[in-house]
Amino acid sequence: MHPDDRLRVKEQLQGALARGEAHGLVVRIKTAQGKSKAIEMNVGVRYGLDRAVTHLRCHIRDVTDKLRAERELRLR
Question: What mean pLDDT is reported for the chain?
């Protein structure tokens, strides 16, 4: 994860635990091959009867090309 994104991601995940969900969190990462990618993370949390977290579900999607295309459109 990009160092500039770490605090924001931590805060978003803590918020997800408090609210039960977080959607559209975009994070910059480096792949094992050293390429930069942007991923979108959607988080869902389920709680037991004692309000303890029983499930943490994360859906992760590569949005690198989408963000590049949007940036190019803005620059035109």
Answer: 88
